[in-house]
Amino acid sequence: MMKRMSLIMLSVAALTACGEKAQNLGTKKDATAFSGAENHFVQPGWTAGDKNSWEQHLRARGQYGMNDHSRAP
């Protein structure tokens, strides 16, 4: 009896897993990282949509702002 019950439960679980639909949001495209926001919260000197400016600010932040080895005494 237990073997039959487990076989039934296994088949039910297998059938419910096959019926799952894809969970996508549609055809929405992500924006590029350097397109950014155009408000007063962005860092001065960076213009939204300028890839070169974005890369320069990332490089500077990585070197000076977020690098503990360069700030250690």
Q: What would you note in describing this structure?
A:
The structure is a single chain. The model has no long low-confidence stretch (mean pLDDT 75). The protein has 73 residues and is mainly α. It contains three helices and no strands.
Strand content: under 5%
Q: Choose one word for the global shape.
A: elongated
Radius of gyration: 26 Å
Secondary structure class reads mainly alpha
Please count the helical segments. 3
Kindly state the percentage of residues in helix: 40-55%
Question: How many strand elements?
Answer: 0
Provide the succession of SSEs. HHH
Biggest sheet: strands, sense, closure?
Answer: none
**What's the rounded overall pLDDT mean?**
75
Poorly predicted ranges: none
Distance from N terminus to C terminus (CA atoms, Å) equals: 73 Å
Helices and strands in order:
Elements: H1 2-18, H2 51-65, H3 68-71
Features:
73 residues, mainly alpha, 3 helices, elongated
In short:
This protein is an all-alpha fold. The protein has three helices and no strands.
